[in-house]
Amino acid sequence: MTGTGAFAPDDASRPIGVFDSGVGGLSILRALRAELPQEDFVYIADSGHAPYGERDTAHVVTRSRAITHHLRKQYSVKALVVACNTATAAAIDLLRHENPGLPMVGVEPALKPAAAITRTKRIGVIATRSTLSSARFDALLRSVEREAEFVCQPCDGLAEAIEISIHQQDAIELIAMCARYTVAMGQFGSQTGQMDALVLGCTHYPFVEEHLRDLVGPDVALLSTGGPVARQTRRLLQSHAKLKASGLGHFRLGTTGQRELLGTAALNWLAWRGDVEALAVPS
Length: 283
Prior knowledge:
single chain, alpha/beta, 6-stranded parallel sheet, 4-stranded parallel sheet, globular
């Protein structure tokens, strides 16, 4: 795949828009590319206005609307993936209301899949404070609260630390932060009273999965949302007759922050080399 390329104007060949507050949504883009290799994508990291997870709801809604408008106006996207738990929780209902003709997929912590596989009936959830305090997460939690006990841990600063670590070889501070939050939750394992599943409730967190695995042990299932989001995107495109039939897709990466940050993350996590576009997306 290449980082640039002319997108065909017909409906099925138009690109899919994907956005996050930073580089974390690359975990969703990675899953989308695996599920839909024929599709074209435009990914925007709103790093100049991040982190969403530590901003108020009004800020997240304003930026989500601005990015959605930019993707529609500049790239004529045929569908939108909100690859950010915080933006999904705060803004996706409004975005759907304001863009009724645009198929849209959000992300949410994998509580239901975790409830389906747990044996100890205790599940850990790590996410940003904004996600955990949102009405959308509260409704999701209430829908499964009879199936298991959920131990929810806000991880202040973790998403930002993951982004910072992209340019740093020393991961000691990042590992220490992961350890602090997992220890605060209690015991993980397969025994009665222990948590045998950990839900990664932020799209950044799959990029520290190796550290989390070392901390919680081999018997604990780690659940993220990339795969389910990609499969739902396929189903939605099929239902709207917008699924591209064949070919090898292109994708573009753009950011409102540092181009080098997104480029390095894409190289590390997607094995991608290309030019990152510098974007100005006013609110």
